[in-house]
Design a protein that fits this description.
alpha+beta; Glutaredoxin; 11 strands; elongated
Length: about 375
Amino acid sequence: MFFLTLAFILGILDGLWLPPRTRRWPYKVLVGQVLARVVWCGVLGILAGQLGVWVIEVAFLFGLGRQVLFIPAALFAVLSVWWLVQRGRLRWRSSTAAGNGSSTLTAVVRVSPSLMAALILAMTTWEVRQAALTLLCFAFGALPFEVARTLAPEMLPFTWRRPLAASASAGVKLFAGVVLAAAGWGYDVFTGRALGDDLDHLGHSVSRDESVIALGAQVPDVTFMGLDGKAVRLSDYRGQVVVLVAVGTRCPCVEAYRARLNALATEYASRQVVFIGFNPNANESLAEIIARQKAKPFVFPVVVDTHQAATDALGATCMTECFLVDAQGRLQYHGRIDDNTYHPERVTAHLLREALNAVLDGQPVQALCRPAIGCAIVRRKPGSG
């Protein structure tokens, strides 16, 4: 939400930066300009989101973790300085041909420091849909000024707003850079506290505070499809403790937890605990899931929730969200694995481990169920198969 708001502010500043029109334009040009800006920014957001997914995966493959946030933080700093240096030299370019709409296209596709900053914001969300929303917020921030300049150019004669908008934009970029740099170090500038990765304002999704299935209630006999195409039912493991974990092939949170999940599964296998990783994402094919399991395997079975029926029954919303089911099929714990996704050395609460030990020892679970944080589960479109 923080980044969406920031992108909206950047859009407003971008709209204020432009000088007023010299003439009133027809409504069809206005509509074309508005639609073109929205479509253009939406497409840029989708591309930025996909690029962000690739960047974060490469970063984790090289062991960079959250330090990858230093890259956009540095880019924000560079953009801010460049904006201040160049603000007096930038010129508005438009066609002199009346009514041909070429000025509209220039207004939409021009590359401004604010647009570049919004693109960087979109990349740091690491979610394609969230990235598209970020760029759309930027577009809608500038639209009122586009409309006003087109309908009534004489109403925006203020000459002081351009340097003011430039200075404000530079400040916003520097502030965003500080937020990202602090997040890379593991600190939240809004609360002043050290954090694990509790950064839902940086684009991750947060699971529900309360499970859809009440703690102690029977879990429905959900069914998955194994990577070999055979059905895998929760009831197949009745009499054993089962840990269901939502996993995906593109989520950095899953990569950060891979080694810890493998260690937990190996440690508790001798105590008849079964770990199952279920993939509920509509945008990840079976071939992609199989390839990922071969390249970077979990030591426990990975299954596919092909129609997201199990996801709906469990009420799962994000990656690494886990559900601990006892030998009688009752839910005993729901939420996070531990309290620090990206920095194992900073973990202070081993939530899933504590819950497992309590269930295996026949004791009430004392571990506080805490919302999981991770990439949002990609849902299927209504009516899709």
